[in-house]
Specification:
By secondary structure, the protein is of the alpha+beta class. It contains 4 helices and 11 strands, in the order ααβββαβββαβββββ.
Length: 294
């Protein structure tokens, strides 16, 4: 029998090599997963907002085919104490074109503070005339106001002109149970206007340009539909860190506009100006993460 004098040595990774490799994979995943998740959430938001906008415009056309311009729609005009019934009439006209609809009265009311709508800057936003709503079959909630003069809402230097009668529509893309119930994050504003439904914040309107973490976020519907992203949520600001935060392990400081910011950072950054990426806007402060040292 032939016996080879050469043997093939079998090699394998050592336990240390495997652990190092897994550690590297874990670090890379920790660095990349948050941005991937955020990117996916943005795409979902853009898609649902585009779908909601398409529905509103299709419904508007069918309503207008039957009744004409908004000032001629039955029962929708604001009239003092009748604003709730007028808002319901506004809702009912759109709701007749929705399948699997679920009706509710006032959702974001003036009593239950857990169901308030917040502005993008964290301040309270809800106005008392956002009363009735319906929910479509994908869980999107549409809230309606009564109609009134809407010149300031859609005034534009382009083709769109001020309308003589219009009303607000808020779209909550994931339902009010899930939160955060905040403009520019899961709630977006539209306007029933003279010639159609338009995203709030169009050029020339008084809400133009407030889609930022220091603004109310009313114009974020226009931004998202135009830019197909939500980059305004990833704003970086310069913060002078001056003190320890009430939050464990955090420092706090102020932006150049005197907005309080809580930052996860070591004491070595006290007294320094740093770049901070804002991650959340609350009523009285912002939360953020340290980007680098200056």
């Amino acid at each position: 029998r032939f016996t080879s004098h050469f043997s093939r040595k079998r090699t394998a990774f050592t336990l240390a090599e495997v652990l190092i490799t897994l550690g590297i994979i874990g670090i890379v995943s920790a660095l990349t997963m948050p941005s991937l998740i955020q990117s996916y959430k943005e795409k979902v938001t853009v898609t649902k907002l585009e779908k909601a906008y398409s529905f509103l415009n299709q419904a508007y056309k069918r309503i207008s085919d039957e009744y004409g311009e908004p000032q001629d729609w039955p029962g929708v005009e604001y009239a003092g104490n009748a604003s709730a019934s007028a808002a319901s009439a506004h809702r009912d006209l759109y709701a007749q074109y929705v399948s699997c609809k679920k009706f509710k009265g006032q959702i974001y009311g003036t009593v239950d503070t857990t169901k308030k709508i917040k502005a993008l800057n964290g301040e309270l936003y809800t106005y008392i005339y956002y009363f009735p709503s319906f929910t479509n079959n994908d869980g999107t909630v549409f809230l309606f106001s009564s109609l009134r003069n809407c010149g300031g809402y859609v005034l534009s230097t382009g083709k769109l002109t001020a309308c003589s009668m219009g009303g607000d529509i808020l779209v909550d893309i994931n339902g009010y149970e899930k939160g955060p119930n905040q403009l520019g994050k899961d709630i977006f504003a539209f306007v029933t206007a003279q010639t159609g439904v338009y995203p709030a914040g169009m050029i020339g309107s008084y809400t133009e340009g407030d889609c930022n973490l220091n603004g109310r976020g009313i114009s974020c519907s226009e931004y998202v539909l135009r830019e197909k992203n939500m980059k305004y949520l990833n704003k970086e600001v310069k913060v002078l860190l001056t003190d320890h935060s009430d939050k464990l392990g955090n420092l706090s400081g102020y932006t150049d506009t005197m907005k309080l910011v809580n930052v996860k950072a070591d004491d070595k950054y006290l007294g320094k100006i740093v770049n901070v990426k804002i991650t959340d806007a609350k009523t009285w402060s912002l939360d953020g993460v340290l980007v680098d040292e200056h």
